[in-house]
Amino acid sequence: MRLDKFLADMSFGTRKEVKEIIKKKRVQINGNIITKADYKVSLDDEIYVDDDLIEYVEYEYIVLNKPQDYVCALEDRYYPVIMELVDTIRKDLVPVGRLDVDTEGLILITNDGQMNHKLLSPKSHVDKTYYVEVDAPIPADAQEIFSQPMDLDDFITQPAKLEVLSETSANLTISEGKFHQVKRMFEKVGCTVTYLRRDKFGPLTLGDLELGESRYLTEDEISTLQNL
Ligand code: URA
């Protein structure tokens, strides 16, 4: 990998900024000052910027508590994007799936493409739990209806688990993540979703993350996801 890409990936700045760092002779590799941005680094090189030894972190895994009015995209014309809330300038991080602009809650962000693909694959059946508020009383048979395959016109749902909390609020666990799935399931039983928050994604929970806050996954969480 090129030295400038390596330093940009490690959050030392944009490609332009890291070229400046290199030009200013602040980078040493295996004891030699390196001034070429296209110098090829390898993973066993000892790379220092000033007095700091830089360890290459290939994959990052971040969990964000997404507020409403942010979109799960890399750029958008109308809304701010969730990446603005994450304290990194790595350019290769992407959200695992999407939450609607008016949905809050847990979204995983990573540059591990294989993990992203696996978690989104319908075959993986990763459970996602949503807290839902609706505008009308949840029908008594909703639990039974959601536990059976439902025809949502363009697809048939996998059985889902509904835990009714009050006349107009519930937790719903689904193992897929089709476009507007939760809202569409509730529409089918005569309720419009007025508030939606994802509390769980597989083994991950929001814990005490405030809205708009993010944190890195622990090693345990990463290996649990890898072994799903
Ligand atoms: N289902 C929805 O309807 N919206 C979301 O944001 C997530 C799941």
Overview features:
228 residues, binds uracil, 4-stranded antiparallel beta sheet, 20% helix, alpha+beta, single chain
Secondary-structure blueprint:
Blueprint (H helix, E strand, L loop, with lengths): L2 H7 L5 H9 L3 E3 L2 E2 L13 E3 L2 E2 L7 E6 L27 E2 L7 E8 L2 H8 L7 E7 L7 H6 L13 E6 L2 E6 L6 H8 L4 E9 L2 E2 L8 E3 L2 H8 L2
Parallel strand pairs: 7-11
Antiparallel strand pairs: 1-2, 1-3, 3-4, 5-7, 5-13, 6-7, 8-10, 8-11, 9-10, 11-12
The protein binds uracil.
Uncertain residue ranges: none
Please state the CA-atom Rg, rounded to the nearest Å.
Answer: 22 Å
Number of helices: 6
Largest sheet: 9 strands, mixed
Categorize the overall geometry: elongated
Which molecules are bound besides the chains? uracil
Structure in words:
20% of the residues lie in helices and 26% in strands. It is of the alpha+beta class and 228 residues long. Strands 5, 6, 7, 8, 9, 10, 11, 12 and 13 form a 9-stranded mixed β-sheet that branches. Strands 2-1-3-4 form a 4-stranded antiparallel β-sheet, with no helix packed on it. Strand 1 and strand 2 form a beta hairpin. The radius of gyration is 22 Å and the shape is elongated. It starts with a helix and ends with a helix. The model has no long low-confidence stretch (mean pLDDT 93). Bound molecules: uracil. Uracil (URA) is lined by residues 99-100, 103, 180-183, 196.
Write a concise synopsis of the structure shown:
Helix 1 (3-9) packs across helix 2. The protein contains six helices and 13 strands.
